[in-house]
């Protein structure tokens, strides 16, 4: 379900080129993520979620610095401080986790956001704003999965593995933000709106 390998490769190369001249702290972090491919932002989100021990969905400076280091981003101490200050809008010494990821997402057109929302709503059969294994049954066909065909995995195992593509906090469900973070990365790898929308419609039979 990721963007095509060619688009992903082109995006990584483009991000690496732009990193050489980028000065804006938010854009610098976004490009660092995109230089790792379409799942880069989702990966950073996962690192920060693991670190949020008290589950208050806030990051202090020490957590932020450690998260960037654990993710393997090479940044100067001054850059990390500037970056943190940029995201700490109210100067409280903590960053709101969801707002941080929202700001990090590459900009998307209204049409792209709408088609991602349509795909999420189609998968969320129960309408409770999370996608579960139960939701996927009858929407996502696992019969052609090689490990299902070989008898190695059950239907539920295939669905569980599929959800992991999107699931940042590894709780076995996918919420609206996780789904959007995943497709924000894919979207960044595809310049053309019409192509992205066609890909989504074909992938999810919208």
Average pLDDT metric: 82
**Distance N terminus to C terminus?**
15 Å
Strand residue percentage: under 5%
Largest beta-sheet details: 2 strands, antiparallel
- Shape, per Cα inertia axes: globular
Total DSSP E strands: 4
| Rg, Cα atoms, Å | 18 Å
Class of secondary structure makeup:
mainly alpha
User: Tally the helices: what do you get?
Assistant: 12
- As laid out across the biggest beta sheet, the strand order is 1-2
Low-confidence stretches: none
Order of helices and strands: HHHEHHEHHEHHHEHH
- State the helical fraction: 55-70%
Structural description of this entry:
- There is one protein chain.
- The model has no long low-confidence stretch (mean pLDDT 82).
- This protein is mainly alpha-helical.
- 29% of the residues are buried.
- The longest helix is centred in the N-terminal third of the chain and has 15 residues, at 5-19.
- The protein is built from twelve helices and four strands, in the order αααβααβααβαααβαα.
List the helices and strands and how they pair.
Blueprint: H1 5-19, H2 25-34, H3 40-51, E1 58-60, H4 61-71, H5 77-87, E2 94-96, H6 97-104, H7 110-123, E3 130-131, H8 133-136, H9 146-149, H10 155-164, E4 174-175, H11 176-188, H12 193-204
Antiparallel strand pairs: 1-2, 3-4
Helix pairs in contact: 1-2, 2-3, 3-4, 7-11, 7-12
